[in-house]
Amino acid sequence: MDNVWTSTNKLFFKINPSLKFVIISSLFIVYLFVHNLNTMIWASLLFLILYYLVSGLTGKWSFWFVFLTLIVSLFSASAMIMFGKGDHIIYQKYLILITQESLARGILLGLRTFTFSLVGMIFATTTLPVPFFYSLMQQLKVPVRYAYGCMAAFRMIPIMAEELMHIRQAMIVRGMARQKGAKALYERMNRYMLTMLAQSIRRAQRTAIAMEAKRFSMTEERTYYYEIGWSRYDLFFVVIILLTVTLGFVCSAYFPLTPFTNVLDH
Amino acid sequence: MSSNNKEEWGVTNLRLAFPKKKTMHFKDLSFHYVKGEKILLLGPSGCGKSTLLQVLSGLIPKSVELPMRTESQDIPESWGFIFQDPETQFCMPYADEEIAFVLENRRTKCEDMPSLIQHYLDMVGLKLEKNHQLIRTLSGGMKQRLAVASILALEPEVLFLDEPTALLDPKGTEQLWQTVQRIGKDRTLLIVEHKIDHVLDFIDRVILFNQNGEIFADGPKAETLRRYQDKLDEFGIWHPGIWDDYEKNHPGNQITANSKEPVLELDHFMVMRQKKVKFTADKLCIHRGEWVTVIGENGAGKSTMIEGIMNLLRTRGKIRWVFDHPEDHVQFVFQNPEYQFVTDQVDAELGFSLKVNNLTEEEIYKRVNEQLLRYALEEQKHQHPFQLSVGQKRRLSVASALITYPDVLILDEPTYGQDARNTFALLDLFQQLREEGTTIIMVTHEMEIVRHYATRVLKIKDGRIVDDSVNNSGEEKKSGQRVDQHEQIIF
Fold it and tell me: GO: which molecular function terms (chain B) (predicted)?
């Protein structure tokens, strides 16, 4: 994971993770109620720019994430575009019916998916798991057992990746990889799932015992190695997000790119 | 139970049952110890030493719920527990955070933590570049010492150690015991271990268990060990001098590998891990009937080499087997036997390779039963491979590789984590195979195996073969008579 980050020193890394979490979550709600295609277009553009400015990922990773998000958005748009209702028919063949209205709705839906992913990624790529959970415990009073449970789970991810490689190697060595056909494929998948599951349960159990042996208590008070506080960066963050959102609405009012101000109306 | 200056802990009349087993595991077992004692618990695998350790620490029944009954269970006020598996006893990604986790549990002030973390790391002699280092980049031995450091943060009076070196190499083992000896001076130690060379220096009391989980001997170190010397061999305990005893009865490799017929040739062979070249061999030729041991430090590239040969990693350059279909003639045994298993039942596991090779049902049945008997797995044939004991898992992984009668057997530290009895049984088996003409390539850390069995030693350093010699390392250590024995090997 370490080679994925360019630098953990960027502005967005220094923001209180709980604040970031709450603000970002509220963005989801805001854009859920936007039915103006122009607003959505501007918002996705602005968040794309913001994402490139603040993201902690290296260029290569960043590009592929955005690319993947675009594809997913296209899929979610296409269903609405091709099978929607509307009066102004653009194209019709067999079951496919594309109208101006459905096109607008589809694009809005696609852009919403795109924006949601971007916003989510702004959070995910600038937040390290450990400080995030510490902040959740300290600011949002999340019970310690969930927070530490999640942190322990995060530790398992690279171990599981290694395990996946070992299972693959075992299949090559034992000749399982050479078997062909659907049944062999099914058995291989089964093998991956079962082994990973069994091993994960065992590991989780052992870790839990080890944690208790280290006097982890789910109920008692505890101190924190990282004390996550507030700083002026938090203010910057709120201002930046507010600016981005407002700018989106303002631009859509003054520079409407399409006539569809409410896709539900038409 | 505690008097003024002498504190005593332990259990009286302990009875305990494992789920799904009808019989009680311990029957009225009593065990007590006093402050400052350094105790070693020995016994055959599966005798319940580890379970007792967990009872003594209170982990059973507090964290591990097992049905148990006892007249009294006196648990020390502060204790620490070191587990066998270095991987699963951490819950945080970074070294400093792991120690901090314990400090948090003890409600240490945040500002005191960094200096305390440094203090505990110094105590176990763990020098990291920076304390905020990813735990998974540490070696097994370093992980175990970090585990000790985090336990020390509990400031425990009593330390329980449950085979902490079972998954470590000899160097890591030695360093860990040095650490434990140093930090254990003013503490009470209870140790379960089957490699006792380094432990013997600092313990003073020895407890011996039999197969039924009963204590049959309990006394001062020297006397107890002398009296029950034969029991140690029976239990498969690695004790000093065990190799000498073994060599008296087993002549070792005296048969010359005189075949000049190559089975494997490497030519400008490179193995990559994550797009980086991690092993390079310009020229290497392995002949039929050789027992090649691959030695070197941790991370030198030993496993990379054999995994490259098995085509499990990306390679460049030429690799030439003498066989047209090497996959039918070459078998590989992983370091961790669990990685070998691809089915859910012991007998299916054995038959798997045969099924892949399209043998008839009768033939598969015949061979599987043969192997079940030979490797003493008959009773376990319907069990899941993961439920077997450490020794049984190893036997099964070797058996499932050998069932196809391979011409070449490649093994990654096959004796890793095995007790002495299993190790010797395995070595005898490999020896027999070699005499029948099987070529063996084995990665090992165990120099006794190299000295005693190998016909050829490849030393790997920084991803290159730095030494390729016929085996004569015995000369340095052993008497003239042995040299003669070994000289016969040289060809």
Answer: ATP binding; ATP hydrolysis activity; ATPase-coupled transmembrane transporter activity
